[in-house]
Amino acid sequence: MLLAVVASGYLVRVLPLSLPLPLVQIGLGAVIAGVFGWGHVLDPHLFFLLFLPPLLFLDGWRIPKQGLLRDKGTIIELALGLVLFTVVGAGLLIHWLIPSMPIAVAFALAAILSPTDPVAVSAIAKRAPIPKRLMHILEGESLLNDASGLVCFRFAVAAVMTGAFSIGNAALTFLWVAFAGLAIGAGVTWAIATAQRWLWHRFGEEPGAALLVNLLTPFAAYLLAEQAGASGILAAVAAGITMSYVELTGRVSGSMRVQRTAVWDTVQFAFNGIIFVLLGEQLPGIVQRAIDFMNTEGSHEPWWLLVYVAAINLILVVLRLLWVWLSMRWSLLKARLRGQSRPVTPWRIVLATSIAGVRGAVTLAGVLTLPLLLPDGSAFPARDLVIFLAAAVILCSLVGASLLLPVVLKGLALPADDHGRHEEELARRRSSRAALAAVEQARQQMVAGQSTAGVQLVNDAAARVSLLYQRNLARGQDTDMDPEQIRRMEQGYRQLRQAGLNAEREELFRLARRGQVSDELSRKLIRNLDLLETRQRD
Description:
- There is one protein chain.
- The protein has 538 residues and is an all-alpha fold.
- It folds into 3 domains: 41-409, Na+/H+ antiporter like fold (Up-down Bundle), CATH 1.20.1530; 416-477; 489-538.
- The chain is built from 21 helices and no strands.
- It is elongated and about 95 Å long.
């Protein structure tokens, strides 16, 4: 399976068509299972435990918090309001489209189709020029709507099993599931970080153990939340968001941050790939069981499955488009009542928001948890059909977003991100001034009691260190220099600096090969150069 994940990373670059990586991985999984018969049976509960916590934790960790807080109203509307709107609207329309499917089962299908997938959204974003703010909204929505969708799915399945449903009980359960999950996730991360700081203070920092604890944090949050009857998914997300604030304390060394980033990047690539390969491996069996269902119990021919898939995808896009449009109109009305002026959102952004509702692993894993039998021993109604429709919607949403988003957003004139550029310049100037002050203070302490030669050495070293920070301060202060010239100068500096780093590394490798320096020393010096290169790229 991991070999398929590695192969997909190269295939996506070799193929003449520009396909998103998840589609390539799904195709590989389908070939593995359908052609070679080497597929794995997906255990949904194990899937939720192994793959979702670390990925959701990482997404919560890395999502821009300012964007999340700035657009919290829009995100909550999409993560909660749109989910409920989709469950009711799509559930009724699916039951009308497929009368043989009981209404409670139709609601269950609509509920599991309502959450978008953060992994799939991120994968699509790499191939489509999605505006940053829109991307932040989509990421925030996909992180939070899993809980609401799964809760609705759980109650719909319970209604099928028992024939009873209570709105009040569902509302109270949702509140507990959501808020308890968020609290447990945040509490776990805070407690682990506090314990780690105490251990580091008493016994020193151990990078290997710290990395392992960091990897295990999302699993701890997920398991504790599930044990308490709360949402493990939201707990993992909250743990990641809390981790980002813990990191701002700056108590972790730079080398550990570099190692941690490398480890998490590897985990993200591997787990993302495994998810979609597993999805692809389930497809041949899912399709065959759906065809058998239509032949034995369905009221139409098997080719009607394609009609159902197309109609359900259209229903989901139209409902999402209607909700986004109504939400936008409501925001404009509120601004007008307050006497505020707000620019009208371009219709292409509204359409892109509707198309970008990509379904993924949560939908497939959730629908596979459908029970096989009812309490009376009879088969769960239309189970195979529901699983097929969910898997087909995942594929269609991925393909549709991959093909349509670049077309919809092509040539869209967006305002320049001046705020982001000003923020970067402010950060560089303030940090450079702080560094120069610290260098000068350290220099004064070091020259105290030194000989003339020693003072000169310290001054030379301080001058060399100060050059980097002075360059950051000088950048952009020359009012006579065009911004494009400043950008080209910076680009030239980076290219020249990169050439120098490459030459240094090559020489160190050559010296190590000839035995003129030890392996230990060469690794140490090359690591320093790698850290400099990483900083240069950032």
